Structures are given as structure tokens and as C-alpha cells.
Amino acid sequence: MFENDDHMVLTFTDLVKGEGIQSNQMVIIHEGHSAIFDPGGDLTYMPLSMAITKYVKVKDIEYVIATHQDPDIVSSLDKWLIYSEAKIVISQLWERFIPHLIPGYMKEKAEGRMIAIPDQGMNIPMGHSIIKAIPAHFLHSVGNFHFYDPISKILFSGDVGASLVDSEPEQPVRDFEKHVKKMLGFHQRYMVSNKVCRLWVNMIREMDVEMIVPQHGRPFKGNEMVDRFLDWFETLECGIDRVNQQYYTAP
Ligand SMILES: [Fe+2]
Ligand SMILES: [Fe+2]
Fold first, then answer.
1. What's the pLDDT tens digit per position in 129-181?
2. Residue 115 has pLDDT above 90, yes or no
3. 128 CA to centre of ligand 2 in angstroms
4. How far is the CA of 215 from the centre of ligand 2 (A)?
5. How many Å apart are CA 125 and CA 75, to the nearest integer?
6. Which ligand is the nearest neighbour of the Cα of 20?
7. Which of 14, 33, 153, 162 could be stapled to 210 by a disulfide with Cβ–Cβ 3.0 to 4.6 Å?
8. What Cα–Cα distance (Å) separates residue 94 from each residue in 39, 86, 110, 141?
9. Which ligand has the shortest distance to the CA of 142?
10. What is the rounded distance in angstroms from the CA atom of residue 230 to the CA atom of residue 3?
11. Is the model's pLDDT at 64 over the cut of 90?
12. Which domains, and CATH codes, for the chain?
């Protein structure tokens, strides 16, 4: 996605085979420091760890960073705890649930390695740069963050902007109108309300974002496509905007 002398951003898009949902894993390598974003479930650990060894040794990975707590995001955590010395970075709301993902005998392995992101977000140091943890609560998880790299200007947006495409998930969106069909149903059901979409869009418009990379499906590349996505998301009715008494009728 991006490369200069001491900075590289990689995404892996085709590591989940078979039953699992297609997902993108992002890796940033900066001055020899490295971070993996939403490393995925059990299905992804082996292929992802093999794919990254070309760039960084698993044991040298500095951060394993999660947007939220879903199984397609962090259920491989036990493996990363065993085979790397990485710090695990996740919302403070989910930090205390993490021990449930790992067997009892491994609790020691996790000790001192958790970084809980406070609700307002934080700057995660990485060599001479930072990764910005950007609040994205209720989009969709109650404790949710996106991650912004100020060098590449890439925003890793978790489930926001996610799409289910049949092929070539690495290819940026070209026809936005057509692409909406691949996103609409998921966003209507999984995102909590239009109010949050608007607040999030207001924040992102103040930032300098050149590419949005979601956890599933195609990225939005270039200011024009990023703006089209923001315009769409800002007006989206979703979650509690769409429910009525019918949804709450005992079967
Ligand atoms: Fe999710
Ligand atoms: Fe997801």
C-alpha cells in the first residue's frame, strides 16, 4: 500500500480460506518497529505469520492491535501471545475480556502486555512516528477504535466501509454506486445509529486521509473516493434508526 525508506504498509487480503469471512490484515513496519492490525481468527494465524516473515520475524512484532473484540479480529490472540512478545492493544472496555480468549496456563504470558486504549483514543508510539487510535465507538462495537498512520495517511477502519466482494478484495473501489450494494445491508444492521456515523465523519473530515482500508473487502483510495464514502456514511440510516416494535415482538 505504501513504501518509503523506513516505512511500509502492507495488507493481506486472501489468507482466510473456506468457511471464514474474507478479511484484510494490515501490517505497518516503521524503522524496524512493527504492528499488526486485526490479526484475525484461528484460520488466519498460520498463513499470516508465514506471509509476514518475509518482512519481520513473528517474535519481533511490537504490537498486535485490535479495532474491537469480534472473533474474526482477535481469536488468534493466544498464538500471538505465545510466538511473539508483542503488546496487545485494544479498547479498555475489552481488555478484561481478553483473558477469556486464552487458556488458564497462558495467563502469565499475557501479564504486562496489555495496552488498554482509553475512550478518547491515544497516540501509540512507533519509532520516530505514531499510530493514532481514533474513537469509533458503536461502529459497531461499544468500545471500538480505528487506526491512522500519519505517514501513509491510511486509515484502517475495521468494519466501517466493509464490503463482501466476490473477487479481488485488494482492488480499490472504482464504481462507488455499484459498490454500495456490497456494503449497505451490513452497515444498516451492524452500525448502531446515524448519529454516530455523523460524528465519526465530522472527525475524519478534519484529518488528512488518503486511503480507507476496512477489515473486509475493497479499500477506498484517493481523496475523491474517500469523500464519496464519507458522504454516503454520513447520511446512512442504520441500527436503531431502523427498528420499530415489530423487531421486538416475542416469537
Ligand atoms: Fe465486527
Ligand atoms: Fe469484521
1. 999 999 999 999 999 999 999 999 999 999 999 999 989 999 999 999 999 99
2. yes
3. 30
4. 6
5. 25
6. 2
7. 153
8. 16, 17, 14, 10
9. 1
10. 26
11. yes
12. 2-248 (3.60.15.10)
